[in-house]
UniProtKB/TrEMBL annotation:
The keyword NAD does not apply. PANTHER family: MAJOR FACILITATOR SUPERFAMILY, VACUOLAR BASIC AMINO ACID TRANSPORTER 4. The keyword Magnesium does not apply. It comes from Hyalangium minutum. Keywords: Cell membrane, Membrane, Transmembrane, Transmembrane helix, Transport. This is Drug resistance transporter, EmrB/QacA family protein.
Length: 468
């Protein structure tokens, strides 16, 4: 459901902007979602370790569905951003806890295969997302890209209530409220610093101070949101850094490649969404392959090889995505990118889960998801700042005029001079963003060489949770 949401929204956003206006807020529709999920991922992961996976997962799905309905009813871009934030709060519980449950139930060999199956489901949802998004936008309205979550979410709630049972030893716990607040404030300030087109130093300075305070608090409290002890494990440290970097590249590509196709190449919403499809085919296919290879070859070859392929694909993307390029080339680059991430992401996640026991698996999984989402949020936010800076380069041309580039007429109502300037600004801004995407992916590849040469352990996972 979360995968379907991301790809459907990416496909539909140019049309949403054409309807609601506010292209200067384009990136915030994505970053607000990722910001909210970034803040809550480690918090919900910790709560799942303390109180069980099931109640926290159901709560997250409920928030997500309320946010989905409200997003579909949004009358302005500002309201859409607010309700996307609510969606993100729910996603902060859904994503890490679902993956944690897999780690609870299955041993290493089974876990590798099941994570591959999960990626296959994610990929199928993502594959249908662009097609569904393009169809809904063209034949219904963009509002329905959010309403589509409701029947799927309600069915999921019923299945969890009936079939998922867990045996949790209830003990008194203390919640790290101070740590949670400091984490939230620090991440918000960090994102504002990445997104701001003017002075960045104040929010970045606030982020540095507050996040330093967060680290100090976590070292002293009894039950921290993110236990510092997990970062004494080298594989978790490298997985966290690599995940943050490849997520910045991934979310950047899924956000701005559709904008390039529709805004620069003049493609339709369906064609824009189609550029994400090759990535969403390559990822689950290679994730399934990685699940079968993991026990035989270990974590490191899959991580290094996968991130190397992803880095190559993004550099090719930055070189090839120019005005007039055939649609097959960005599609091919996105396919290779997805294949690389399919190998690497599966191995990184299972490596993190294998490094700790049940009592810390929720927070360890959540910490990996946290670094993925914070990397994606900061990356997309920074790229949004680059794009807005280019679109506002000429004060005589209002940035709101760029909304017309994304409509079905592709700016035909604008004067030739304004259309040429806006097209040039959009092309330049996106070209810079594609190089940022490439830099993030190549850096992730570089960090992968520091991953320790360890063989996966085949020890079975504890059976505190089970599906009946």
């Amino acid at each position: 459901m979360a995968a379907l949401e991301m790809t459907v929204v990416s496909t539909a956003m140019p049309t949403v902007v054409s309807d609601l206006g506010g292209i200067e807020h384009y990136a915030w529709v994505f970053t607000a979602y990722m910001l909210a999920s970034t803040i809550t991922v480690p918090i919900f992961g910790k709560l799942a370790d303390l109180y069980g996976r099931k109640p926290i997962l159901l709560f997250g799905i409920g928030l997500f569905l309320v946010g989905s309905v409200a997003s579909g009813l949004s009358p302005t871009m500002e309201w859409l951003i607010a309700f996307r934030t609510l969606q993100g709060l729910g996603a902060g519980a859904m994503q890490p806890i679902t993956l944690t449950v897999v780690g609870d139930i299955y041993n290493l060999q089974e876990r590798a295969r099941v994570q591959g199956v999960f990626s296959g489901v994610w990929g199928l949802s993502g594959l249908l997302g662009p097609l569904a998004g393009g169809f809904i936008v063209q034949w219904l309205s963009w509002h329905w890209i959010f309403y589509i979550n409701v029947p799927v979410g309600l069915a999921t709630v019923v299945l969890i209530i009936i079939f998922f049972h867990e045996d949790i030893q209830k003990q008194p716990h203390t919640l790290d409220i101070a740590g949670a607040v400091l984490l939230a404030v620090g991440v918000v300030a960090l994102l504002l610093g990445a997104q701001t087109t003017g002075s960045r130093w104040l929010p970045l300075g606030v982020a540095a101070v507050v996040l330093t305070g967060f680290v100090l608090v976590e070292r002293r409290v009894k039950e921290p949101v993110i236990p510092p002890s997990i970062f004494a494990i080298r594989s978790i440290v490298i997985a966290s850094v690599a995940s943050a970097l490849f997520s910045a590249a991934m979310f950047g590509a899924t956000t701005y490649v559709p904008l390039f196709v529709q805004g620069v190449l003049g493609g339709t919403a369906t064609e824009a969404g189609g550029m994400i499809t090759p990535m969403l085919v390559g990822w689950p296919v290679c994730s399934l392959i990685a699940g079968r290879l993991l026990v035989k070859v270990g974590f490191r070859p899959l991580i290094v090889g996968g991130l190397g392929l992803a880095g190559f694909a993004t550099v090719a993307m930055a070189l090839l995505l120019k005005p007039g390029v055939p649609l097959v080339l960005p599609g091919l680059a996105m396919g290779l990118f997805g294949m690389g991430l399919g190998f690497a992401a599966t191995a990184l996640l299972i490596a993190v889960q294998t490094s700790v026991g049940w009592e810390m698996r929720g927070v360890a999984t959540a910490s990996n998801m946290f670094f993925r989402t914070v990397g994606g949020a900061v990356g997309v936010g920074a790229m949004g700042g680059v794009l807005v800076a280019r679109l506002t380069a000429n004060p005589e041309v209002p940035v709101s005029a760029a909304n017309a580039l994304l409509g079905p007429e592709h700016g035909r109502g604008l004067s030739a001079e304004v259309l040429q300037q806006l097209s040039g600004f959009l092309t330049e801004g996106l070209a810079t963003n594609f190089w940022i995407i490439a830099a993030a992916a190549v850096l992730a590849f570089g960090f992968s060489f520091f991953f320790p040469r360890v063989k996966p352990s085949g020890a079975p996972a504890p059976s505190e949770a089970a599906m009946h």
